[in-house]
Amino acid sequence: MSRLDQVKRSLEAAGQAHVLRFWPELGEEQQEDFLEELLLLDLQRLREHCQAAAEAAAAPPCSLDRDMEPVPPEIIGSVKWSDPSSLSRWEDEGFLQISKSRVAVLLLAGGQGTRLGVPYPKGMFDVGLPSRKTLYQIQAERIRKVQQLADSRHGSSCTVPWYIMTSEFTLKPTQKFFKENRYFGLDPSNIILFEQRMVPAVTFDGKVIMEGKGKVAMAPDGNGGLYQALVDNKVLEDLARRSVDFLHVYCVDNILVKMADPVFIGFCVSRGADCGAKVIAKAHPAEPVGVVCRVRGVPQVVEYSEIPKETSELRGPNGELVYSAGNICNHFFTRTFLEDVAEMFMDQLKQHVAIKKVPFVDSSGNLVKPTKPNGIKMEKFVFDVFPFSKNFVVFEVVREDEFSPLKNADGADSDTPTAARNSLLSQHSRWVSSAGATLLDRDGTVIRPASCSSADQHPAECEISPLVSYFGEGLEQLLKGKRISTPFILDEKRVEEPQEQ
């Protein structure tokens, strides 16, 4: 049986014979490319995938409020209310593990910059900082700095490997970008790019959508595709070869992310956790972020759309929101836990429905760009493994210090390049003020700290390179007592003589 006959039979068995409708109209090279693409699909499970998508889209919304309860305080640590000695102890533990090269970071970077309005991966985006650094460069420099800090504490020569999960859309541009920028000073052998799976988009009646006569409409399988990708690309074996025991997993679009955060790592390790989540306090009940909580006694993230209004507005005795632990896609995993997920729990991961507008070719072969949603993309989420944890912990951080996502183009209500830039500049202005320096605007007028504290305002143009300071440390000896004119960039070259007036 030829490869084409094999594919035909599989498609017919799955009820998807229409996929080859335009086969005779394709050129020989197009046919070969299309055949290769179809052979990469899991044709044996295609019927199951399409039926599950249609059934999930037709199912009524899930309401979990009767089974929800907040995470108990005994599994929570917090930069706001944990005592300073505990925070210091957790930081020491985190740096110790980093110094032993037992910590890696793993970046979820499979999504495109569609909502940003750019045709390239989000990590390559320049939000308009004075330095013009991209998200990838900022993150690479934070890795370099945290390695340096760990080495200076312990006299080590450590490595924090950087694993980057891409997709079909982002792999090659990311590879090229890193090479062109000489890997931002990191050893290329410690930057491991790998690709997540793609899955077909499906119509509401369970048919694979064709985006071209010889092209199935495909989409990444969500950031929860991480677990299958770890297996497909032998990442777990690579982690074991490097003797990495702990992973810090995060999403590419958070400009304030602390790479391999020693305090978070140390807290999780000290508690013997196999899985952990950073959270922020929700700004208000209707904020569109998932909530870390317990459902039927096990840890879970419940999406904001699944929580009734009256439940989201519940308040405790001191007026605090009962369900306030906002998920920010910032997680801790042990390698052992990820190995268990791969071996035992992969098939139990929940599928989530995303209703999208998917361009397609109609029965006559004409390209149609729909004006309303016409298709289903099935996704898995990275937090779907929380229920399998044997020792789950939560760590609360301050939004202004650690969370400012980049999702939308300027002009949107939130999560824009301007908001991300202002968040970082505001943070750096606070660092400079805390170090005992005074910032001056272009006219020489003192910029008061209060006007540096809100990303909603126009903060001082004050940027501190991650190569100088990872999280505000070490600045007092450089800046105390100085009057600094803005715009101001403090990088490695200017550490000895920062610009001042």
Automatic annotation (TrEMBL):
Species of the source = Nothobranchius furzeri (Turquoise killifish)
Sorted alphabetically, the keyword list is: Nucleotidyltransferase, Transferase
Which InterPro entries did the record assign?
Nucleotide-diphossugar_trans, UDP-sugar_pyrophosphorylase, UDPGP_fam
> What is the protein name stated in its UniProt record?
UDP-N-acetylglucosamine pyrophosphorylase 1 like 1
The family classification in the record reads: Belongs to the UDPGP type 1 family.
Which SUPFAM superfamilies does the entry mention?
Nucleotide-diphospho-sugar transferases
Which Gene3D superfamilies does the record match to this protein?
Spore Coat Polysaccharide Biosynthesis Protein SpsA, Chain A (3.90.550.10)
- The reply to whether Transferase figures as a keyword in the UniProt entry is yes
Annotated GO molecular function terms are: UDP-N-acetylglucosamine diphosphorylase activity
Determine the domain of life of the protein's source: Eukaryota
One Pfam family named in its UniProt record: UDPGP
User: What's a single GO BP term from this record?
Assistant: UDP-N-acetylglucosamine biosynthetic process
